[in-house]
Design goal:
mainly alpha; single chain; 4 helices; about 110 residues; rod-shaped; about 45% helix
């Protein structure tokens, strides 16, 4: 009889240890995993605040490379880059990556940044 009680008690202790271990494993916060980049565009310089001021000129040269109005494009791009410290990737569009650049409007309500 004493042997059955000790086996039963040992089994209960073992089950309690398993429950505590399982609960501790479930309550730990998962380690954040790096998100894969969904596009092939480089992220440095395309998100707000990710550029240094001296990096604006080459980024704006790339941004304005396909326009017929290079001088005004470069002027406003550099002005926007100095304020927002980012330039969207590519020569057109992609402004959603830099909300400051995208949301800065002229007095008439048009986009200020190319």
């Amino acid at each position: 009889m004493a042997r059955k009680q000790s086996i039963l008690m040992l089994s209960i202790v073992f089950l309690l240890l398993l429950l505590v271990d399982n609960h501790a494993a479930m309550s730990e916060a998962p380690t954040p995993q790096p998100q894969p980049n969904s596009s092939n565009l480089p992220q440095h310089g395309t998100t707000q605040g990710s550029l240094n001021p001296q990096e604006c000129s080459p980024r704006c040269s790339t941004r304005c490379s396909n326009t017929a109005y290079k001088k005004p494009c470069l002027f406003f791009c550099q002005k926007c880059c100095a304020k927002c410290l980012c330039v969207p990737a590519g020569t057109y569009g992609n402004k959603q990556s830099c909300p400051c650049y995208n949301n800065w409007k002229t007095k008439r309500g048009g986009p200020k940044c190319p």
